[in-house]
Amino acid sequence: MASGDTKLTICSDAMILLGAAEISSFGEGSDGAKVADRLYDDLRDQILTMYPWSWSLKKSQLARLVDAPTNEWTYKYALPADILGNPRAVFASSAAGAAPVKQWEMYGNELYTDYAAVWIDYQTRPQESAFPPYFVRLLRTACAAEFAEAVTDQTTKGDYFRALAFGNPAENHRGGLFRVAANIDAQGTPPQVIEDYSLIEVRN
Fold first, then answer.
1. How confident is the model at residue 3, as a pLDDT?
2. Which of 7, 18, 87 is nearest to 42 (CA)?
3. Staple 171 to which of 102, 138, 175, 182, CB 3.0 to 4.6 Å?
4. Cα(50)–Cα(172) distance, integer angstroms
5. Are 115 and 59 in contact (CB under 8 A)?
6. CA distance 144 to 138
7. What share of the chain is helix, strand, coil (3-state, %, to 5)?
8. Where do the structural domains in the chain lie, given as residue ranges?
9. DSSP character string of 95-146
């Protein structure tokens, strides 16, 4: 993990990439500090939810709410307070090897389903000090792209750093440093193997 990284250091490094003055505090009153303080949080959360980063995932059993849903579902559940976005996967069992289920819907911050017990995989928002170096580099570069026009009044710098962070438009924001970071992160997750498949069983 990248030790010592904070919102302030990441934003300050983005300013250095832009050729602007470093930020010593978000309350210092400079234009760079104001821009970074306003734009950083939303950008960080957006990039976090663009990919299931292994270090941002958690598992949890959901607490069933007492009042019943008013539609076709039987139960509703409260989501964890630290969830970022929607669940990445939903399970009806905590048993080893349990497969995700698809019979559920989100309404506001509640999950509706017919299952009497529910577990989920979900993303959280870790502290910046827990971000690995490959993600810090992606986020720093994305910040430079986001801050560029407001700080330097140069759209070309924004375009340059955006392409560096996410690749060209044809890559749908999945190229550049984002692809590098996702590939590095995926190295810690073994490929999923389909052990049981009905068509294969019929053929055999």
1. 59
2. 7
3. 175
4. 11
5. no
6. 10
7. 45, 15, 45
8. 7-52+127-186, 56-123
9. STTPPP---EEEETTEEEES-SS-EEEEE----GGGS-HHHHHHHHHHHHHH
Q: Where are the extended beta strands (E) located within 10-124?
A: 57-61, 63-64, 75-78, 89-91, 104-107, 110-113, 119-123
Count CB-CB contacts under 10 A for residue 35: 22
Query: What distances in angstroms separate CA 146 from CA 87, 89, 110, 115, one per listed residue?
Result: 27, 31, 32, 43
What is the C-alpha separation between 197 and 187, in angstroms, rounded? Answer: 26
pTM: 0.85
Copy the structure tokens of residue 193: 């193997």
pLDDT tens by residue, 38-96: 999 999 999 999 999 999 999 999 999 999 888 889 999 999 999 999 999 999 999 99
Q: Which two tokens stand for residue 55?
A: 């270090």
Q: Give every CB contact of residue 165 below 8 A, 6+ residues apart in sequence.
A: 138, 141, 142, 145, 176, 177, 178
Q: Residue 176: phi, psi to the nearest 5? A: 55, -145
DSSP bridge pairs for 113? 75, 104
**Is residue 147 a contact partner of residue 32, using CB atoms and an 8 Å limit?**
yes
